[in-house]
Structures are given as C-alpha cells and as structure tokens.
Design brief:
This protein is α+β, with helices and mostly antiparallel strands. It has one domain: Peptide Deformylase. A hairpin with a 5-residue loop joins strand 7 and strand 8.
Amino acid sequence: MILSIVAYGHQVLREKSKDISPDYPNLQQLIANMWETMYASSGVGLAAPQINKPIRLFVVDSEQIVNNLEEDEKDAWPGDKGIKSVFINAQIIDTEGEEWAYQEGCLSIPKIREDVYRPEKVKIRYMDEHFKEHERTFHGITARVIFHEYDHIEGKLFIDYLKPLKKRMLKGKLDDISKGKIKVDYKMNFPR
C-alpha cells in the first residue's frame, strides 16, 4: 500500500526516533509499504518518520543511482555497487574521509535540492528486516543516502546543513511546502 509522505513542517520530522523490537506490530507489512511508497515517489530512501512513524527504521536502494551514474562519476566511487537494504535501530559508529558536496533532495521537502557536504564513508551497526545484526562500512553515493536517511531518525533534515543565508533564501519555498501550496506527483500529508 502506498502511504502518504509527511511534508516539511510536521513535528515528527524533528523528533528523535525510538528503537523497535521484533514484535513491532505489522513490521513486515510496514516495510513492504515503505518500499512501495518510496518507489512510487521516485525516491532512493525512505525513513519511518517520513510516513509519520517516529521509529528507527529506514529503507535504502542506492543501486538505482549507482546503475545510472555517468562513467566519470563511477570513477569517483570505485567499488560502490549500491545496496537495497532495510535498516532497523541503526547507530552510526564512525565516519571517515573528506567531506564532499552532492545535491540532495528529500521527499518531505519537494522541489528543493541543495549541495550538502558529508564524509566519504560511514560505519554503521543495524538490524535487517529479520533482526539479524550487521556492522558495515559504506562509501560514496551509498554512504550519502544512508547519512540522509539516518538523519531522519535523528530528527534532522538536509536543510539543517545549509548556511544561514541559504536557509533564509529558501524560507518562502519551505513555508509554501508546510502550507501545502505545492503540487507533487505522490501522496503527501501537509501540516494543518
């Protein structure tokens, strides 16, 4: 089932999410709905707060980005094949490498894309959809998508990384999003 994505301005996007246990109600159906919602919205990641659930759960499919990179971009991140994974109760253990800019966007903040600087690599511990624990290091575009979705479960948004002047310049667009004065081609839940 395709779910509504919560728009900028909703409080849930600013809350630190809670861990869940394997007996979380209808977890497998929720995960399936998140995948369906993400793909229907042309996203590469989706975090539970974006569907109004303040829990530490997100899904990532960076394969679709990596498979469509230009040749010169592939050289920048050798070995990044992309992933399609579920992350439950994730905790970042370490980051490394130089910060690099990439134009990020967000399904909860439609029609805004800005350069965000993030480290090259992330080491993260998480559970998969079967509650099997993993500890892995990701780099390149995959790390970027993980950082972005991880921020959602921490109550942060990509616009928080922008310089104050840039944020002031975007204020009108952000206000329009929070007031529902935009059109998107996916289901959105705007603040009242």
